[in-house]
Structure formats: structure tokens, C-alpha cells
Amino acid sequence: MGRIAEHPILGKAPEKDTVTFIFDGKEMEGKEGEPIAAALKAAGVMVHRYTKKKHEPRGIFCAIGRCTDCVMIVDGQPNVRTCITPLKEGMKVQTQYGVTAKEEGKGAGL
Amino acid sequence: MKRYDLIVIGAGPAGLSAAIEAAKCGMKPVVFDENAKPGGQLFKQIHKFFGSKEHRAKIRGFKIGDDLLKEAEEYGVEVVLNATVIGLYPEKEVTVKIGDEVKHFKGDAILAATGASENMVTFKGWTKPGVIGAGAAQTMMNLHHVMPGQRVLMLGTGNVGLVVSYQLLQAGCEVAALVDAAPRVGGYGVHASKVSRCGVPFYLSHTIMEAEGDEYVTGVTIAEVDDKFQFIPGTEKHFDVDTICVAVGLSPMSQLLAQAGCKMLDTPGGYIPECDEFGQTSIDGIFAAGDVSSIEEASSAMIEGRIAGVSIAAAAGYLTEEERKEQCGALESALGSLRKGMFAPENRGKILKETEEGIEISTNLLAKGYVAEDEITRYPGFVKKAGVHPVMECTQNIPCNPCQDACPKGCITIGENITSLPVVDVEKDCIGCGMCVASCSGQAIFLIDEEYEEGYASVTMPYEFLPLPEKGDTGTALDRSGKEVCLAEVVSVKSAKAFDHTNLLTIKVPKDMADKARFFQR
Predict the structure, then answer these.
(1) Is A45 in the B-facing interface, judged by CB distances under 8 Å?
(2) Cβ-based burial of B231 (10 A; exposed 0-12, middle 13-18, buried ≥19)
(3) ipTM for this model
(4) A100, B46, B263, B499: which sits with the fewest CB atoms below 10 Å from its CB?
(5) pTM
(6) Domains in chain A: how many in total?
(7) Domain containing residue A57: CATH number
(8) Domain-embedded: residue A4
């Protein structure tokens, strides 16, 4: 996907500090204070969570905190709306399975 | 429980405008908004707005947002962010979730300016990551500077679908197609034309059969539908895309008003509160303004908000009836002129066959997104004369008139009626300044000089993409449909502060291409 370095109307993207965060155990970079979802989008991450019953993938949908499709586990807390939660240095972001962090075998976390 | 003169729910264009007017009269309003930043959706609107001077036409939405915030600060409007109003009660009380607490406030008056939310349609695979609302695309690219996708298919040709498609192109994304189940383009033709000439195909009477991909969208199949919106077998078309954008209308977020017991109306435009001319609902002291009371544009929401603010101040005794009448009168006339043209309330749901002038509407525009070459000549903005002159491809009645003030030589006339089609006076001498080109929010004005050079014509067009071509660049001219028609050379590129990021790109094309070439591609 990528970032828009320069835009014909908005000009250059505002300079923000780069921060490091952990997504499912991998180190990733994003811009401080941008929504977690924006950092993931720029890094090409599409799937934020899997639904509880049917294990279907979900990602960004409304991007304004309304639909809750993009919720993930952030610093241990599930159901965090990543599209409106600002990214901070060292954040631990995990794909959410149902309402838990890891799918521990069939039936677990359901 | 804290008490306020006025509690406004929503710090978007309507809510802020109302709070500003109330504060101007001496009231102490508070505005609650669930978001981290005020301004509602205004800061995602990077296009120039329609209207006239009084509506701040040809100014981009996010600049209007900046000014609104400054005005709110100037009048001391208290804005509480990250504050979600979760309850509204007929006694003019609200419960607000702030952090982990729920707080209780009472107002002498309450204004709901909660806006609207996006509609959705379902199709096979619609829940996959990569299917997003058009608003989400705007949020990502215009607020967060992140591309929503590399290759996008847009469902919906209303103004949101058209404007966001253009913004996707500006963000550097590829738009594979614009698709709509309706047989006609839903939004303004000028918005469709500026996308069409960039080479984006329109598929009317088509909709999505399936979003493909295991974990996320990797493609989409659309097919034609019959007049009962059933798929026609054998008409399937596949596109490799990573993103599907859905722009199928908005619904008022009127839940709080319904909860309070306001009388509600079930209309084709959504579930809305019954309001009087001042924006007051059936409950005395509870008002509504902006999209929550009827889906319109930000420009009208701001005026509605101001009317409500003035009315609330008058009801509370901060203005005399005479003062209220004077202030509301001016606002109502401004609102009235915005509610004219093809999207006027009386035209809702109607299929317009001709313009107010009695000129037949372009059928090609409605079916394919651009005016055909043999149709464009019948509009009063399309003229031919010796030397450089404007050609205005404005073919529908839009409440918008900055072009007539932009021309220092008086070449362009719209007249008293803001929605009239622009007329070009060939007797007046165009100096080729291009102010009209940059002033047109619909990007529908071109400067043509058929005698630019022996055998060659020049075409000047509005250009809002990067990288900006340079003088001497050669490339291809595209026609209104986005089809390559001839080689072209860039002979001038003008950028000026007064143009507000609309660059004027002049290309040289063979003389017989003067009426065809409408876009440049390197």
C-alpha cells in the first residue's frame, strides 16, 4: 500500500517521529500518534482479526471508530479500535481471534 | 449535574456553526464530540466546494474546517473531545461517556448535530479485509497520508463515489472502474467527467457479484443487472484489485433523537426528526441540524447550524424577535440558493431530462460519465471564436457561480439565478489568464486557442496531480472518455497561489483535436 509522501493538494505529509511497535511478535515501524490501523495499512497488513464463530478475517472497514471491524489486542487489551487509537513507541499489537490473542488449537478461545 | 445554556452533540460543520452563533449572542455552549479531533468530516474534503461567495465556494473543505475551528475558539466555544453522548432525554439532559466515566449534563437547549453514517450493501465476500467504505478511503489518504489500496474498484456513482474516486487518483492509487447498479450516474456530471477523462471506465447497471480472495481482497467480479436488479448471466467482468470501496449513500444518525422521543419521519432519505423552520424537533428545546435532519452537503449543514444557533439564542432571550428575523432571513436566503439545481428537494427522485434552460441533458454523461462530442456543442458555455477563449463544459444546473466573478473581462455570465448554465460572451476579449479554469470547482473549464500555431491548437486544462508535467514534456492527449487521441506537447504549466493547487496545464495538439483533447498523460 504505502504512504503518500507528497500530495498534489495537501503537500508533503507532516513530519512525525518514527516509532517501533510489535505486531504479532514482529518489529514494525509507524508514525507516532497516527492510528495503529494506518501504520498497519502502510506496512501492508490487511487482516486485523478473525471472527469468533466462523473464523473469518476482518480488517479496516469504516476507519472512524464506528464499525469495530478493525479491533485488535493492544498491550494485552482486546477489542481496541485500531483505527482511532494512536500508535505509541513499543506498543504490542496482536491479531485478535474471537476475543483472545492466540488460537490455541481447535475450540480454544471460543 | 452541570448545567449549560446549550449542549451541542457533534463538533462537525453543523454543530460548530450553531455553537458559534449561540456564543456570539452571549450564550455559553458546550460541544461534545466522540472523536479525538473536531471538524467532523470537513478535514477529509480536499476538493473545492460549490456555491457562491457567501457559501465560500471554490474553497477546499479542510480550509473551511480550519476557519470554523478558529471562529469557535475566538468566541470561546467549549469543545469536549473523546466524549460520546450515549443518552438524550426529553428533559434536555444528556449522558456522556468520557474516558471510563459516564457523566450527566443538563441544557436549557440541546442541538443534535450527529451527522450521518455510511450505508452498505452486501455481496459475496463483502466482509473481507479490503472492502472498505468510501469514507474510510478518504480518512486514510486525506487525514493519515496512507494509500487505501494500490488498485481500487469503486461501487457507487453518487457525489461521494465520484469525488472519492478522483481523490484516490490524486493519492496515486489506480481506480479500476466505477460501478453502479443504477442505470444513470448519480452525482454531478462534472465530478464524473473529471474521473472519466483520466481513463476510469464507468459500468452503470452493474454491481458486484463477488469480492474474491481467501484472507483479503485480491479481485472482484461485477456483472450487469436488469431493471429488477437481477444479474444477467454472461455479463460478468473481472478486475484484479486489492481494494473495493463502497459509496452507496448515507443515513442520518438520528438514534439519540428517537431515544429522546422526538417525532420521527421515515423518509426515502432516512429516519429523520420532524423539525420546524428553526430546526426545533417536536420536543421544545431539542433541535437538530445538518445531516442528522436531512442528508445534504457540508455547506448547507453549516448554514442550518447557524440558523439553529440563532433561533436557540432568540428562544433563550439573547436576541429580540426582530434581530432573529434579520439574522435568520439572510441565512435562509443563503440556504435557499444552495438548495437549487438538479439536487433541489423538489427534484429528489426525479429523472431530469432537460436543464432549466430547456436544453436536453447529455444521455452519454448519465450512462458513461462523460459528455459525447456531438452533445457538448449544445450548451451555452461551448463556443468557438478566433484566439484564446474559455470552453465551459458545465451541462447541468449546479448551485455554483465563482466562474463569473473569476473572469476580469466579463466573458462569463451566470446571472441572478445561481444554477443557470454559464454563458460565454464571444464579443468580450479573453486574455487567457486562466482564473476561470482554476475557479471551477467542477474542473469543467478549458481554454482553447485553435490558432495557437500553424496547424496546432492549444488546450489549457485544470491539473491536480503529481508529478506535475513540465514545459517541453511530450505525452498523449486523452479525450473526455479517457481514450488516447493524439500526441501532445506541454507548452506551459502555471501554478499560482490564487489557483489554490489547481495548476493550469497547456498542451499543444493538432488543430482538429482542439474539441477532443481534455487530459494529458505522460
Answers:
(1) no
(2) middle
(3) 0.95
(4) B263
(5) 0.97
(6) 1
(7) 3.10.20.440
(8) no
